[in-house]
Amino acid sequence: MELVADILLVTGALGAGLYCLVLARRLNRFNDLEKGVGGAVAVLSAQVDDLNRSLEKARETSESSNTALNDLTDRAEGVAKRLELLMASMHDVPDVAREDVASAPARAQNPPDAKRPASGAMFKRHDRDQREAAQ
Hints:
This protein is an all-alpha fold. 76% of the residues lie in helices and 0% in strands. It contains four helices and no strands. The chain is elongated, with a radius of gyration of 49 Å. The N and C termini lie far apart (159 Å).
């Protein structure tokens, strides 16, 4: 009876050892970095790292854009205040007569300060042919 128990015990141990060997090979194939899930995990890990770097760059870019936009908004508000003051000051200026407004384009084309040719002597160059004919 002990012999049968020993044979069953050895058979069970060999079966368990064989089962462990098969599982080890499957696990090695499963964790293979090129084909198995291990490779997929490695690729996903690299992609997560790339996405984290991209996210940080996007965050930095958005912060700098936000700062620039705030600066531009402040400048625009300042200009808007100045324009409001200019518009308010324009209400204090008396109205210009319609005739002055109508003659403004003509004055712009012919300003009074425009240089006009002098009415003095003007020199004219004559060709040689004309000089020889005159002699």
